Amino acid sequence: MTPSPKTKPNALVTVGPAKGPSGRFRNVRVLTSQFPAPEFRAFKLWALKLCAPQRRPPPAGPLPPGGPGPRPGIAATGCAGAPGSGSSSASATGGAFPVSVNNCGRTVTVKQQPTRAVALNQGAIEEALALGVQKQMAGTAYLDDKVADKYKDAYASIPVLADKYPTKEVFAQAKPDFALASYASAFSDKAVGTRDELEQQGIPTYLDPFACDNKADRAQVSFDNVWSSLGDIAKLFGQPGNATTVIDAQKTELDAVKQAKAGDGQKVFWWDSQTDTPFTGGNAGGPALVMQAVGATNAFADVDGAWANVPWEKVVAADPDVIVLADASWSTAQSKIDYISNDPALKNLKAVQNKRFITVPFSQTTPGATLVDGAKSVSDQLAALPR
């Protein structure tokens, strides 16, 4: 096939099909521009070989100038699914169905690429948005704070089912074919239904591995396990290549945060919520990972677990250099600043006296797609504080 004279510059042209490694026929699609027909035929030959099952270099015949790679006006877009075989985006990034992953002690199997997924809890919502699968979603629910600016437009394109958890009826009306959540409470009888119930209805579910019902099934909180979870979610959406892009970028950013060592020599009290007995970050959780990444000393590194309540007396005894405040709709950073600045004993803490406060959205303090963003934010704010 040669492009018609009416073919527009940069039009999408199918030059396949070719049989891929899975045994399915796949169409090769390219973006065309104005170029001589012989050159296009050479490119077509190379493109068909690219998607053929045999692992060998393209033939030594004529190729587009510059070798077999894309050139201005000719850009390969991947080996897309043939008409009727499913979503082209899944095939282009290596997705194939059915797909199974191990999650919280069970096997989750998605038989067809999701097109009406529902994400519950901000962590799961932003994981989906980070992976760029908003067009495969039918709804979201339950934010802790504002969605990150970089996901704002994608988030706005998806219906919001409820401010908190939707009822079973509202959830069912969205006709979900897949559901993911950050917390086990999402998959309960009081919310959208249990995982077993949803599975019986043909709706596979995925729960962030740090929140499994059975503590023995929970993954250790680490950046590597956050990235592993992102990989699983991308696989279930049929977009494994998207996870690779996100993870590589996050690793680069985290390396830069670690090299900056903005928290070196700084003792940090991480205050999540509650005023009677403050809820703080222990030695195993999102806050601990962030403090380690920026090189700061956790004032409560001797407290086991991700989170714990500690008495104010211990905060006074620690007398931290910096106070990190989680900002959530149900416990704002400003409300905590007001409280600690007006308490007769706490207002004398050196961090309060010197107004050395750092604010970070709650969603960036939990293991998920924006935890690295939280580390960078804390690092940048530490660097800006006067010493």
Give a brief rundown of this model:
With 387 residues, this protein is α/β, with parallel strands linked by helices. The chain folds into three domains: 11-85, no CATH class; 99-249, Nitrogenase molybdenum iron protein domain (Rossmann fold); 261-384, Rossmann fold. The chain has helices at residues 37-51, 88-92, 122-130, 152-156, 168-173, 195-200, 223-237, 240-260, 286-294, 312-318, 333-342, 350-353, 371-384; strands spanning 11-14, 18-19, 25-32, 75-81, 99-103, 106-110, 117-120, 137-141, 160-162, 178-181, 205-207, 267-273, 279-281, 297-298, 307-309, 322-327, 357-361.
What does this structure look like?
With 387 residues, this protein is α/β, with parallel strands linked by helices. The protein folds into 3 domains: 11-85, no CATH class; 99-249, 3-Layer(aba) Sandwich (Rossmann fold), CATH 3.40.50; 261-384, Nitrogenase molybdenum iron protein domain (Rossmann fold, 3-Layer(aba) Sandwich), CATH 3.40.50.1980. 33% of the residues lie in helices and 20% in strands. The protein has 13 helices and 17 strands. The chain has helices spanning 37-51, 88-92, 122-130, 152-156, 168-173, 195-200, 223-237, 240-260, 286-294, 312-318, 333-342, 350-353, 371-384; strands spanning 11-14, 18-19, 25-32, 75-81, 99-103, 106-110, 117-120, 137-141, 160-162, 178-181, 205-207, 267-273, 279-281, 297-298, 307-309, 322-327, 357-361. Strands 12, 13, 14, 15, 16 and 17 form a 6-stranded mixed beta sheet that branches. β7, α3 (122-130) and β8 form a beta-alpha-beta unit. The longest helix is centred in the middle third of the chain and has 21 residues, at 240-260. The N and C termini lie far apart (69 Å). Residues 56-71 have a biased composition (Pro residues). It comes from Propionibacterium freudenreichii subsp. shermanii (strain ATCC 9614 / DSM 4902 / CIP 103027 / NCIMB 8099 / CIRM-BIA1).
